[in-house]
Amino acid sequence: MTVIDPDTQAGWVSEAADEDDVEDMPLSMRLSIADTLTLGNATCGFMAVYFTTTGILIPHLTGSNESGMARNSAATAVILMLLAAIFDLCDGLVARKLRSSPMGAELDNLSDLISFGLAPAYFVLVYGMVADDAQQRVSALAAIVVLLAVVLRLARFSCVTLKDGMFQGMPSPFGALTVVSIVLLELPFVPTLLAIVGVAWLMVSRVEYPKPRGVLAVAMLGWIVAAMGLLAAWAFDAPGGQLLLQTGCALQVVMGAVIPLFATARRVNTFRGNRREARAAQLP
Questions:
Q1: Which of 65, 110, 114, 222 to pair with 150, CA 20 to 30 A apart?
Q2: Is 100 or 26 the better-scoring residue by pLDDT?
Q3: Are 41 and 112 in contact (CB under 8 A)?
Q4: Facing residues of 166 across strands?
Q5: Pairing status of strand 11-13 against strand 166-168
Q6: Are 90 and 51 in contact, with CB atoms under 8 Å apart?
Q7: CA–CA dist 2, 246 (Å, integer)
Q8: Is 4 helix (H, G, I), strand (E, B) or coil?
Q9: Which secondary structure element, helix H or strand E, spans residue 166, and what is its range?
């Protein structure tokens, strides 16, 4: 309600009117707790790009040989991606338990694109610029493949309805962490490139992946925290830190390869079981 001040003849709005305006705010403009966690996801992805640029790319372009700073920045960038994965895991759990806003799904897709599309693709691009045996243009192409795979995967996720408890294609957080793990393994350029393209294909494939709920969500959270510890040990050059990091990265890559095998085997067994049941039903 607008009131005219008798002394100044100026209009002002009462506090009650302000409260009414807040209550009348459309639900689509209100942020829930889950939305706040989703925005934390986006922030972590952006900061991962920042540390990759300032700690790895710029020192390389300026001729600085501070390998320790590059290692710390690389570890920080990957830890931020891991933290983004924690935010992504928690915002879904919170949204199921508490109220979620109508724009929550859109915020989640946009944040995932930053943290699990742009950030790992940029990490691959920078790797192609600083690695001794890498080819910059080919690495740029691989980075584009990763980015487009995440874009297509997120778009399909918004349009396709799947059975409860399953994802179609490797989830983008899992794919991003697998791509970064491949880079950190410091394999020869060609195997690294092929593995990155393979992960991008898995993200847009029809291979089913279980959603992280219940025990699986706790296990994933524990794995992310352990990975952060491995990165911290490597960043501070702890004894055996390099070996621990390579072991953790190798496990991440192995999981990325093994889960599709289990999913395929389960699908084949289900198909065979359905055929046996169909044959048994046809018998007199």
A1: 222
A2: 100
A3: yes
A4: 210
A5: unpaired
A6: no
A7: 66
A8: strand
A9: strand 166-168
Give the model's confidence band at 18: pLDDT under 50 very low, under 70 low, under 90 confident, else very high: very low
Apex 208 CA angle, 186 and 169, nearest 5:
55
Distance of alpha carbon 42 from alpha carbon 245, whole angstroms? 25
Looking at the chain, list the stretches that DSSP marks H as alpha helix, in order from N- to C-terminal side: 15-23, 33-52, 58-61, 67-97, 104-113, 119-130, 136-159, 172-184, 189-204, 215-235, 241-282
Is the distance from CB of 280 to CB of 266 less than 8 angstroms? no
pLDDT tens digits for range 226-284:
999 999 999 888 888 889 999 999 999 998 888 877 777 777 777 787 777 777 777 66
Q: If you average pLDDT over every residue of the chain, what do you get? A: 83
> 219-242, pLDDT tens digit by residue?
888 999 999 999 999 988 888 888
Nearest to 180, CA basis, from 238, 237, 227? 227
Contact 179, 201 (CB under 8 A): no
Q: Rounded to an integer, what distance in angstroms lies between the CA atom of residue 79 and that of residue 46?
A: 12
Q: What is the pTM of this model?
A: 0.81
CB distance 38 to 90 below 8 Å: no
Task: Using the predicted structure, report yes or no on whether residue 29 has a pLDDT greater than 70.
Answer: no
